[in-house]
């Protein structure tokens, strides 16, 4: 949020910490609109500078204070008619200012109380090598947030809700994982999930306590939480997707219950009565019991909904039910005007700051408030959720692996900020370049530029394409970049990029763009890197062969089959499998 300028307040001090409390945008904006935040002029200035006795005489109808002007009363009436509305609004602003000043001490204490509620942790648990996306032509970048649901039993409140007293000393598992992507223009949002028992490559991680965990390729993704905390879960997602993730937000069992109760329940739907209970073939169960139709779940029932798997048929379907829950929560908050209603915002702030744990860079009331402002304008029909398709793991039928082609297509859509729906205006998706977005320098001669080329085509799934860096070096040399040379340094990337030292500024960007243009790479492939020592081309997994770069085309809404897509305004119901159908009587 931008800082508003307030003038003409004499020697009165600014409301203490008003901006941090989220007050100043509305208060100061209203002040400027009504005249409270500007210098007085004309009759107002004369009135303000007049002696008290003169002002009192004028209020009694004494015109200019001499009591002899027969037109004084008419003048006063005209002035009152002209400025009456403005004065009423100004007095409202003054009254609000007095109230805020009178409670500023209590307000600051409450603000500090909310800040003290919030628990945090390091954003990342390791080095993924993924860089933040370059701004678009309007200077905007997407926002990516990893949402994590933990089954931590160390807290007695969680044990009371989720059982597992014998698991108090076990490491927590990230049973729910959703990556929320908000477009650079903040007009659409996409959410993708990976089922908890999906085996993925997990990188080396270090927890906030300093303990290190070796990389592994045969563990499910939900174990990342116990291998370095939520920062390790984030790093794993970055390595998998090539998407830079700005923040993580985590909630435990009791937090789910608290948030559902705070908003008065979350709407969900089942196509028949459901009872998720133990059976001979499937022990356990969430305990969820609902009759057919739409219901607002809260309390322990909300947690049961999120944990139900058997009745919904699979981990993929459980993730779909979780998406339905999240969409319902967003819809409920929007209907409650949660971002503008002070009472609702206060209640949510108290509950959320206790229930959520967040990455350190947003570990404050202001950080969370600013983050929520980034999300509030996404309309429900532009929110799309989907699962990444999985297949059975060859080594264990109870675990999954990602369908590589489908996963990469969805990850590429996120990297390129392509909407998961087809409702967007194409003009919104492709902002018009502005003069300020163009390089302010001219590229130097190709032959004078040293370009280091790295082979980044390898991944955890397949080895690097042999001789790839040498092939691209020859291609560059043929285009006049005679100083191009290959490097043996290891580099693994999903996408091909050209980086330049951030300190080189506009000149470095112009030189990097000239390399990209020579190879047919898009401008978005050019990135500034504070650690780069010179122009560097990393040939990614998206260019494993050939000498002509063909960027994989991704169209809005082109989501792979099997992704279990759910739109924010969909009113469907979860299907219940036969052994768990309930007639609503027993």
Keywords:
single chain; 586 residues; alpha/beta; eight-stranded mixed beta sheet; five-stranded mixed beta sheet; globular; disordered N terminus
Topology (elements, then pairings):
Elements: H1 24-34, H2 43-49, H3 52-59, H4 72-102, H5 104-117, E1 119-121, E2 143-150, H6 156-162, E3 174-182, E4 189-193, E5 199-202, E6 205-206, E7 212-213, E8 216-220, H7 230-241, E9 247-251, H8 253-262, E10 266-270, E11 274-275, E12 289-290, E13 293-297, H9 300-307, H10 315-335, H11 342-355, E14 356-359, H12 365-375, E15 383-387, E16 390-393, E17 396-402, H13 404-415, H14 426-429, E18 451-455, H15 468-478, E19 485-486, E20 497-501, H16 505-519, E21 526-529, E22 535-539, E23 566-567
Parallel strand pairs: 1-14, 2-9, 4-15, 18-19, 18-22, 20-21
Antiparallel strand pairs: 2-3, 3-4, 5-8, 6-7, 9-14, 10-13, 11-12, 15-23, 16-17, 20-22
Helix pairs in contact: 1-4, 5-11, 8-9, 8-11
Description:
By secondary structure, this protein is an alpha/beta fold. 33% of the residues lie in helices and 17% in strands. The chain contains 16 helices and 23 strands. The protein has helices at 24-34, 43-49, 52-59, 72-102, 104-117, 156-162, 230-241, 253-262, 300-307, 315-335, 342-355, 365-375, 404-415, 426-429, 468-478, 505-519, and strands at residues 119-121, 143-150, 174-182, 189-193, 199-202, 205-206, 212-213, 216-220, 247-251, 266-270, 274-275, 289-290, 293-297, 356-359, 383-387, 390-393, 396-402, 451-455, 485-486, 497-501, 526-529, 535-539, 566-567. An 8-stranded mixed beta sheet has the order 1-14-9-2-3-4-15-23, with helices on both faces. A 5-stranded mixed beta sheet has the order 19-18-22-20-21, covered by helices on one side. Strands 5-8 form a two-stranded antiparallel sheet. Helix 1 (24-34) runs antiparallel to helix 4 (72-102) and helix 8 (253-262) crosses helix 9 (300-307). The longest helix has 31 residues, at 72-102. It is globular and about 80 Å long. It starts with 23 loop residues before the first helix and ends in a 19-residue tail after the last strand. The model is unreliable at 1-68, 98-102 and 425-437 (pLDDT under 50).
